[in-house]
Amino acid sequence: MRHGKVRVIVMLTACFLLILSNVYALWANLLWPEATGETVLQDGILVVDASHAADGYFMVRADEGGSERYKLRVQLGKKKVPEYDLTSNGEWTIIPFQLGNGKYTITLFKRGSKGYTTGGKLTVKVEMPDENAPFLVPNQYVNYNPDTEAVALSEELCAEKNSDAEKLEAIRVYIHDNYLYDYDRAESVTTGLLPDIDYCTTNKMGICQDLAAMAVCMLRVQGVPARLMIGWTGKIYHAWVTAIVDGEEVRYDPANDINDVTPKSYTLERYY
Fold this sequence. Notes:
- The protein is α+β, with helices and mostly antiparallel strands.
- The chain has seven helices and 14 strands.
- The termini are far apart.
- The model is unreliable at 8-28 (pLDDT under 50).
């Protein structure tokens, strides 16, 4: 009997160590954005660190003190993303190269008494070996770091999952069973409000963009490329997720999934 217990303990210990080693291996391969200074460009007050363009992102800041506010335009040929909001707090902001490979134009606009004026303009040639790279790292809209609770939750939920499909399903079931849609927060939404992943995990609820950003975070740290999608379901402005699972795009709508609702149509405006 004693030998039997020893064998069980040994087996359980081995399983635990295997899971731990898999989690460590995944964690070691995660890419956490940083401004490393190898490729820094500046024009006017616009400063761009493009050291990791091949990894799907750049870091940007406005080199100016005070409490100014700015708009940042990111454009690839005729394709562009709606302008990002930036402040002059001196901190770097992570912006994705989500439009694919090519020559990007990055323009900073500074708000003045008579509207916005150009504060700087730069070009960056982007060659990503994997065009899904922007959808595997944090950015301004899907904002997380190693200490974000959703990261640890993802590791816990997916520790024993082998396929991307299993990971997506584990995350979906967890959010469906443990989170609510925050109707009060929805009524107070203001223009320019960014998704808040920490709000979700702290309150176990959120609006569509919070829930979608949290799900995207949890997928990305598992190595599953995922996009935060923003557009409309019918006439309702909405946010959802598109994950790349086994080479196929899979739509996942956390907010409507929580409420067991299936919209008839989705119209995309932008993605991050």
